[in-house]
Structure formats: C-alpha cells, structure tokens
Write a structure and sequence with these properties.
six-stranded parallel sheet, Rossmann fold, alpha/beta, seven-stranded parallel sheet, 15 helices
C-alpha cells in the first residue's frame, strides 16, 4: 500500500526524525511504498542522515523554502497559509502517519479532502516554551503557538488513532492538551533507537553527554554538578565530553562563561556536530553517560547508552523515569555530583556487569514498536 509520513521542517539530526526514518525503512522492507512529505528540505545539507538520502521525500510547501527559518515558523506558516500548500501530492496515499507537532493538522485537511485515514505518532503535543534562554524569546514562542491552537486541536481530534512515545507523554502532556480525545484510541508505543547491542563495549576515561546545545537540554546543570566535585574529578583523570550541534549560541556562551568562572576548562570538551560513525565510537568508548533535559517526552539517549553497555545518569523527570532505573536518576546538581563521583569510582568490571543488565533492559523496551505500528496501519486500511 502507499503510506505517507508527514512532518514539517526536517532538522535531520533530531531524535524524532530518526524515529520517522526507521519507520520508513521498516515499512519499505514490508513491501509498502512509503514517502515522506515535508515543508522544506535540502538533499545536499550536510546534516541530512546518510540513510535518509535514499528515501522518497516530497515538499508540499513552496513559498519560502529557507533553512534560515526556525522550525517553529516552518511549522506554523503552512498551517496558517494552508491555501499555499500542495496537498494534492498526498491524494494517492492509502493512509498517512503524521509526525511532529502541527503535522496532524495537515493530515486532517488531507483526510477531509481525499478521505484518507491517518495515525498521529505524537512525539509531543504542541511544544511548550520551556527551557528558552531569554524571556522575550519565550514570550514570542508562546504567542506563535497561541495563534495555531485552533488548528492544533482540530488536527488532534481528527486523528483516527494516536501513538504516544511514553506514559509521561500520554498522562502529563497528551491528555492535558486534548482532554476529550477517546482514551481507547491512544496507545503508548516506545520509539526505536540506535542500538549498539552487537558491539563490544570499551570503557575510556570520559563521561558522555549527547544532545544539541540548547536550554531545553539543560547542560548547565551538568556544569553546576561538575563544579561541586571538580577537585575529585580532576584527580580521577576523567572529563566530560559534550557531543552535539551547538544550536543556541547565547546558551553556549553562558555555559562557557560558567566553565571559565569555575575554573574547570580542563574537565570539559565540546565536539559540535559529529558523524554517525563518530557518535557510535563515543558511545562504545565512554565510561558512562549523563542525560539532563527539561521535561523530555521520551529521550533516546539513555537507551542508546544502555544498548552500548553503559550506565546513564538521567534527570528524574519526563520520559527518563521510564528509561532509567531509580538508582541512576537525579533531581538537582548536588545529587548529580554525588552520582557522578560514585560512578567514576566504580571499577571497569563493576561498570561492565551493570552494563550487561542495562543492555537486556534496553532490548525489552524496544520490542514491538514496528509490529504495533503495522498492525494499526493494516487495521485502518483493511489491509488493502
């Protein structure tokens, strides 16, 4: 059957894009014809994942194709200027799967016009303005989301079925945003993630923090924790390596200023954007990892670290409560500092043994994603 996956802009390196690409690969392998529909993308962009280059991607929004526009604007403009969208490109689909916030509204308009059912794979409802580095930016973002609230609600309530990526998303985000949506049409489907189960882990003398440099990723909390244990960490020979694209220069400068103020320059390294092969090497060679985002709907990083046989210290909120055991969660910089030091002081054998348990746990969390998705697709299309 012909399956269309709708997103808005494609930031290429985001976790939600990885989930979408994995779904495309799986559905293609099952013999279906799958195409991605988005507002804008550039096949020559260096950030576009290599495996996405062979996928069919079609733009449905042409007026302002520009990478300069922020992702929020790229999502809101087609929704408010729907008459400039070419929805006809999707009319041959048997079913649509909407990804990202507001893509469900585009899917709802296609459904209304061409009677095509759609599933919303809801990574998050309309994104809250948390973690914004400057107050005026937060106000602007809140305003932008307020002007598309009607479309957001219409798209959500038009969904034939909704998958959410965590229990936290379902209970604390989705049903608070859409309280009247039928509960029997919402299901938790944990996302696929980059698994390193088949590789032999090695344990270098660095702690890995993977994520774009953004206020919502909360890297400053890690810096505050480092400051509290800097003497002990310095003696241990360990350092912290931040791997990820530096997307917010203001926030990055704030982090760098704190590092200088605390005198911990020798304990911290930033790599910027790296290749997929580099990411794999960082996962397989780190001692363990830290993950500290604010109210993350799910978070793939802890499971990716676990799949590499590594411990992940995660913040005690959001989807991390479902991916990380209690003993490895922290609520503030003091708790993280203590956990960090305790884990640094573990022997390699202790880390290796714990890694075996965490690998098995990660495998269990990833089971059933694709079969659950395909079953619902076939049910809504009558297996045509």
């Amino acid at each position: 059957m012909k399956i269309g996956l709708i997103t808005m802009d494609i930031p290429y390196t985001g976790g939600s894009e990885y989930v979408m690409y994995e779904q495309v690969k799986y559905l293609n392998e099952q013999g279906h014809d799958v195409e991605i529909y988005c507002t804008w993308f550039n096949m020559n962009d260096i950030n576009l994942q290599e495996y996405a280059r062979e996928m069919k991607i079609t733009e449905f929004w042409k007026p302002f194709p520009s990478p300069v526009l922020k992702s929020t604007i790229n999502a809101i403009m087609p929704v408010k200027l729907l008459f400039l969208c070419n929805l006809e490109v999707m009319k041959g689909c048997d079913i649509l799967i909407a990804h990202k916030y507001l893509s469900q509204y585009i899917a709802s308009r296609v459904k209304k016009k061409y009677r095509i059912p759609f599933i919303w794979y809801c990574h998050t409802p309309l994104k809250p303005a948390y973690g914004i580095s400057r107050r005026q930016h937060k106000k602007i973002l809140e305003y932008l989301f307020s002007i598309v609230k009607k479309e957001d609600q219409e798209g959500a309530y038009s969904s034939d079925f909704v998958f959410v990526n965590s229990k936290f998303n379902r209970d604390e985000m989705f049903f608070k945003a859409y309280p009247h949506f039928p509960k029997d049409k919402v299901e938790v489907l944990y996302p696929p993630f980059k698994g390193y189960f088949d590789y032999e882990p090695r344990y270098g003398k660095y702690v890995l923090c993977v994520g774009k440099i953004l206020p919502s990723k909360n890297q400053l909390l890690v810096i505050e924790a480092l400051n509290k244990i800097k003497e002990d960490l310095s003696c241990s020979g360990f350092r912290i390596v931040f791997v990820g694209e530096i997307q917010d220069q203001i926030y990055y400068r704030k982090i760098k200023n704190k590092i200088k103020e605390y005198g911990i320059e020798d304990l911290v390294k930033f790599t910027g954007l790296v290749t997929e092969d580099d990411i794999k090497d960082y996962y397989l060679n780190c001692a363990f990892g830290i993950y500290s985002p604010i109210k993350e709907d799910f978070g793939l990083v802890p499971l990716e670290l676990n799949s590499a046989g590594k411990i992940c210290l995660s913040i005690d909120e959001g989807g991390c409560k479902e991916t990380t055991p209690d003993r490895y969660r922290f609520s503030n910089a003091n708790e993280l500092g203590k956990l960090l030091l305790n884990t640094v002081n573990m022997t390699v054998e202790e880390r290796r043994e714990e890694g075996k348990y965490l690998r098995e746990r990660a495998k269990n969390l990833s089971v059933g994603h694709f079969t659950g998705l395909l079953e619902r697709v076939e049910e809504l299309t009558g297996s045509r």
